[in-house]
Amino acid sequence: MNPTVTLTIVALKMYFRNRQAIFWTMFLPLLLMLIFGLINFGEFSRVDMGVVDEAQNPVSRDLIEALQGSDVLEITVGSREDELEALEDGDRDLVIILPAALGETGTVATVQSFRAEGSQQEAEVGSAIVRGILDDITLRLTETAQLFAFESQAVDSRGLEYVDFLVPGIVAMSIMQMGIFSVTFTLIQYRQQGVLRRLKAAPIRPYNFLVGQVITRLIISVLQTIVLLAVAIVVFDVEVVGNIGVIFLLAVLGGALFISIGFAVSGFAKNEEVGAPLANIIALPMMFMSGVFFPTDVLPGALEKIVQFFPLTFLADGLREVSVQGAGITEIPWEFLGLGVWTVIAFSLAVRLFRWE
Question: Measured between alpha carbons, how far is 307 from 289 in angstroms, rounded to an integer?
Fold first, then answer.
C-alpha cells in the first residue's frame, strides 16, 4: 500500500481512539452550539419601527398596512424629524423612509432605513420584512413596470434568528480548533516521544507523513462540518440556503489554513508548556472577535477594521454568506482571497519552522 495512504489510515485510527481529541474537536463545539442556540442571545419580542410616509399614496398605504399586520413589528407613523429623534433616543430600532416617488410609474424609488447601533438584529428583521413586502408590491404592479430600491445601514441577512448567525461561526471555530490545537499537541508529543525521529529513519519520505496528517485533519474538518450542520438542522430547524459543496470547499480551505498554523506552532514550540499558551494566544482572540458568537460591528471602530483581516473572520464570514445568504463562489471572492493568502503565509512558516527532532 502507498505509504501516504497507510499513514493516513493510521492517523485516522489514532484520532478516533483518542476520546479527549474527539471531545475537544467534535463535542465541545457541538455543546457550545447547543448552549448558545438554546439560550438564544439574539431573541427579541418585537421590533420598534418608525415609518415616515412622504409618498401619501395607495402604494405607501398598502405597505404600511402590511407592516402593521406583522406580529413582530411595532409600527409608529410620524414625521422624519420626530422618528429620527426617537431613533437617536433609543425609542426605535429602525426607521423607514418612504420617498415621495414611491409608486410613480417608470421611477426607481429608493426606500431608506436607519437603524440604532445596538439593534442590528432587530433592524435586519425589520428590513427583511420591508423588502419582502416591496417585492410583493412589485409583483402586483409589473404591468406598470414600477421598481423599488432599498438602502440600509444594516447588514443584509436572511436569517431571523440568532442560531442562523451562530451555526456558521461555530463550524468555523471548530475547524480552527482542530487545525491549531490538534496538530500542535500531536506533533509536540510525537517529537518528545521520539516518534518523529523513528519516522525520519523509516523507509518513507517526510512528505508521506506530512500529507497523511493533512489529509486526516481535512477529513475531520469535513466530518465536523457535517455533524454540526446536521444537528443545527434537526434541533434548531436551521435552513442551509447555499450550495453544500461550497461550504465543504470553505471547510477544506479553512482546514488547510489552520493545519498550517498548527504545524508552524508545533515547529516553534519546544514542548507543551510553550505550545499550549502560544496556541491559545493565536486562537482565543479570533474566537471572541472574529464574529463567531456576535457580529464584529459591536467592536470599537478601529478594532472592527483590524479583525476583518483575521483568518477566522474570513472563514466565518464565508460560511455565513453561503449558508445564510446563499452566496456562490464568485460572490465571496474576498473571503477566498483572504483564506488563500493566509494559507500561503502559514504554510511558508510551517515549512521554515518544522523539525523532526
Answer: 7
pLDDT for 5-20, tens place per residue? 887 888 788 777 877 7
CATH architecture assigned to 47-152: 3-Layer(aba) Sandwich (3.40)
Antiparallel, parallel or unpaired: β 47-53 and 94-98: parallel
- Give the model's pLDDT for residue 307: 92
Rg (CA), the chain: 25
Residue that wins the pLDDT comparison between 124 and 52: 52
Contact 356, 200 (CB under 8 A): yes
pTM value surpassing 0.85: no
d(CA 312, CA 289): 9
Residues of the chain with CATH 3.40.1710.10: 47-152
Give the H/E segment covering residue 190.
Answer: helix 183-192
Sheet of strand 94-98: strand arrangement: 73-77, 47-53, 94-98, 108-115, 147-152
Lowest-confidence segment of 110-119, 153-162, 287-296, 320-329 by average pLDDT: 153-162
Placement of cell 461561526 in the chain: 169
Query: How far is it, in rounded angstroms, from Cα 28 to Cα 35?
Result: 11
User: Of the segments 29-38, 121-130, 132-141, 233-242, which one has the largest average pLDDT value?
Assistant: 233-242
Candidates 72, 73, 82; CA nearest to 52 is: 82
> What are the distances in angstroms from CA 98 to CA 124, 139, 325?
17, 18, 26
**296 CB neighbour count, 10 Å cutoff:** 20
Fill in the DSSP letter of residue 154: S
